[in-house]
């Protein structure tokens, strides 16, 4: 995981954030140009205009930086879909929109994410990514505050479930050449995650509670908007 930064003043904090932002941008740019596996730490520091010692003050290695890139993107997507607390219903539209932006990011930078998520040799990245994403998901679960008196899945298991589902789906999508649009993928993911697999598969009539009332209203959300 990323190295911890010692306490510092506001000016130092700004420099730290700027340096990390430059390194993330450099990795994205270089991976888009050459592919992740062809990029070295030296390439990254040259592009970011920092020295290697500075790089290693912030990150252990290239995969640690890649994990930070993924985490930042996930945090931005999460901020676009505020946590709902107090028993209020979830706004699926905002979830689909933020999910679409997330899948668009994966598509734009597929030369970074495909090798990391698909190839077994990058197992260390997967371990780090799972850990970082699980912490993020667990925080959102805690912020939402599960209703008292209800039997619910343990938070660590729920966060693992959500993280594994997302990373596996993205890996499947990238490995097959992104056969569906980012919006389609986001819509399917959100519907599957929040409503269950039967409805996404068109088998809502098999649900123990009978056909869902939202089924018709969700049909249009599953379809890509028309292109001009």
Helix content: 55-70%
Please work out how many helical segments DSSP would assign.
11
Approximate shape = globular
Distance between the termini: 44 Å
Mean pLDDT: 82
Assigned CATH class of the largest domain: Mainly Alpha
At the fold tier of CATH, the topology name of the largest domain is Tetracycline Repressor, domain 2
What can be said about the biggest beta sheet?
none
Structural class: mainly alpha
List segments where confidence is low: pLDDT < 50 over at least 5 consecutive residues.
212-228
Number of domains: 2
Strands, count: 0
**CATH architectural name of the largest domain:** Orthogonal Bundle
Q: From N to C, what is the helix and strand string? A: HHHHHHHHHHH
Radius of gyration: 20 Å
Proportion of strand residues:
under 5%
What secondary-structure arrangement, pairings included, does this model have?
Blueprint: H1 10-34, H2 41-48, H3 52-58, H4 62-79, H5 92-108, H6 110-118, H7 123-144, H8 155-175, H9 182-195, H10 197-200, H11 215-219
Helix pairs in contact: 1-2, 1-4, 4-5, 4-7, 5-6, 5-9, 6-8, 7-8
In short:
The chain is mostly helical and 228 residues long. The chain has eleven helices and no strands.
Q: How does this model look, in words?
A:
The model is unreliable at 212-228 (pLDDT under 50). This protein is mostly helical and 228 residues long. Helix content is 66%, strand content 0%. It folds into 2 domains: 11-59, Orthogonal Bundle (Arc Repressor Mutant, subunit A), CATH 1.10.10; 62-190, Tetracycline Repressor, domain 2 (Orthogonal Bundle), CATH 1.10.357. It is globular. The termini are far apart. The longest helix has 25 residues, at 10-34. It contains 11 helices and no strands. Helix 4 runs parallel beside helix 7 (123-144).
